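Please complete every field before forwarding. Incomplete forms are returned to the sender.

SECTION A: IDENTIFIERS
Entry label: holo-173
Bound molecule: coenzyme A
Molecule representation: SMILES string

SECTION B: INPUTS
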Amino acid sequence: MPHRIRVRAAEVADVEAIHALLEPFAAAGVILPRSRDDIFEHLQEFLVASFDGEPVGAAAMHIYGSNLAEVRSLVVREDMRGRGIGGLLLDACERWAAALGVARIFALTYLPEFFARFGYARVPKESLPHKVWTVCVHCPRFSNCDEIAVEKRLSDAPIEPMKLAPILEVEQP
Ligand SMILES: CC(C)(COP(=O)(O)OP(=O)(O)OC[C@H]1O[C@@H](n2cnc3c(N)ncnc32)[C@H](O)[C@@H]1OP(=O)(O)O)[C@@H](O)C(=O)NCCC(=O)NCCS
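SECTION C: PREDICTED COMPLEX
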């Protein structure tokens, strides 16, 4: 039987699984640590990738004020790597941001080569708005940050927007 990989908006029931997925990478210092409370508070930003129904990856898409979004907390469980799941999560973040009309998306990463495969280019960190760094104070590497900033222009890319939010429709006389 073929396996089923699905990327969907996160729900309250996913918080524990998202926390468990992020934890080892946060401990290793490759992503920012996120508490359960933090995940709850930002749940509307999170996507979950499931493999035959089991959550195996997560990503968050955060919007800044200056028509700019960030891909955060992108992880795929180690035993599920190389199946295209990370790419699907990244693609979903981009489509979601595009659907909201966001022009640019960036990431701070130790894996610029991964992002390069999806059309991201390196940019100077100084080109990002100051606001971006407010979450970094929680990072153990704050004073010695060696992450690389990568960015993609969504408005130039042929991205098919994806709507995740439910649409309410009523008909009235
Ligand atoms: C980065 C990560 C999400 C990739 O997940 P994945 O499911 O293995 O990625 P995919 O299978 O979708 O790979 C897509 C493409 O990227 C390439 N790729 C994957 N990991 C890569 C890496 N570490 N470096 C360079 N290229 C990579 C793959 O070879 C593939 O290319 P191809 O289509 O030409 O074969 C995963 O390695 C991870 O969770 N890493 C630890 C957390 C992390 O650093 N996240 C990024 C924080 S910004």
